[in-house]
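Predict the 3D structure for this chain.
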Amino acid sequence: MARPIEYDQQIVLDKAMELFWKNSFEGTSMAELVEATGLNKRTMYNLYDDKQGLFDACLGNYLQKYLMVQIGFLKNNRGVAGIRQIFSAFEFRNYFIGCLYVNTAMEKHLLKSSSLQKVKSYYNTLKNQVIINLEQAREDGDFTDRKSVV
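Done. Predicted structure below.
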């Protein structure tokens, strides 16, 4: 009889994601991942194949938890209002640690194309939605005079 699963996969992904986010892919060791997640090495390899597989799962987790919120800001707020909302996410705060996707792009020489494709796909989606919001802003007359857009 197989042993029941004794971990919460969302908690595992959140803890691993935080390590990668703070320390980078290269700066995070398997030993640190094992300690942070509470999984043993064998279970981690069974679930994710390797560190790269866990990292890709963490990129997907980050996309859903943080980045899709930004796309939602744009989609749910027409024109300039959406653009203002998305840029508010870039404000530096005491807890600011940057963006996992930007950090990933900086390590592109160390990663498999699967990781980079996730990053490229998100930024293409973001770019396309910003273009839609800019077109809406133009339609709404937000660019007809010198009034402040931001």
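Helices lie at 9-23, 30-37, 41-48, 51-76, 80-88, 100-106, 113-139.
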